[in-house]
Amino acid sequence: MKEQRRVLQVVIPIMLASLVVSAVLEFSTPIFTFIFMHSSFLQSIFIGIFSSSFLLVITALISYFRQKKAAVNQYWLAIAGFSHKITEFAVLHLQEYANQAKTDEEYISLTICHLKELGYGITPEITAIHDKYAEVNLTHSKISFTVKKDNAVYERIEKSFLLAGQVNQKITDIFKVAANMFPQADSRVISAFSKKDSEPALLEKEVEQLARQLSIVNDQEATSNQP
Questions:
Q1: Are the C-beta atoms of 167 and 200 separated by less than 8 Å?
Q2: What is the mean pLDDT of the chain?
């Protein structure tokens, strides 16, 4: 997309300058025309430059908007895949005792014990989540300069990206709990992750709303196809 933008920045001034020169040569006074004895020849050249530049601008614009849409959709696929990985992890390791425990304290205690039993065994899952977040980072960097900042889609993208960063940090905290590296804050880490208004829950909602804004109908199917 940067290439198309540069093409537009270079070609549009050339196109407009060619049009102005052609108009001057066409509608100039007899004295001005006399000075330029070959005005018709020059006019033909500048009209040719204008025509070819105009076609190049149209082609670049079409390519730009297609790549822009593709970049935004790729970001959605990345953020949806990341959210899906978080949900899978939560179901396997953080919600197992939600229905068994009678109190929040018991639930947190059982979950912490479960994580510490797993220990470094959850490293592959944590790594997979971090890899998904890296993909979110990469796709976000490709669209940050293409969407207007006052655009509703841009605002949704930035909000989801911020939440993804916060969730990724919490996943790191979960790993520290499992590895017994975070003993003083174990309960706070688990409780913060399991709340209904927690960052993972908010991220899931943002992903769904972004899908609606982008007119992505089969969002659940696309998410489930993420490796």
A1: yes
A2: 77
Q: How many C-beta atoms surround the C-beta of residue 25 within 10 A?
A: 21
198 vs 163 pLDDT, higher one? 163
Q: Of 76, 66, 68, which Cα lies nearest the Cα of 222? A: 76
Q: Which residues contact 67 (CB under 8 A, 6 or more apart)?
A: 1, 4
CA 135 from centroid of its chain's CA atoms: 9
At residue 88, does pLDDT exceed 50?
Answer: yes
Structure tokens at 188: 């706070």
Reported pTM: 0.68
Q: How far apart are CA 46 and CA 137, in angstroms?
A: 45
3-state secondary structure (DSSP) of residue 129: helix
Which residue shows structure tokens 């949806």?
80
CA distance 96 to 107: 9
* For residue 13, pLDDT beyond 50: yes
Nearest to 98 by CA among 122, 79, 114: 114
**pLDDT by residue (tens digit) across 35-64?**
555 566 566 776 777 787 788 778 877 877
DSSP state for residue 183 in the 8-state scheme: G
Are 210 and 156 in contact by the 8 Å Cβ rule? The answer is yes
Q: CA-CA-CA-CA torsion for 47, 53, 58, 63, nearest 10 degrees?
A: 170
Token representation of residue 195: 């709340």
**Which amino acid, one-letter code, is at 133?**
Y
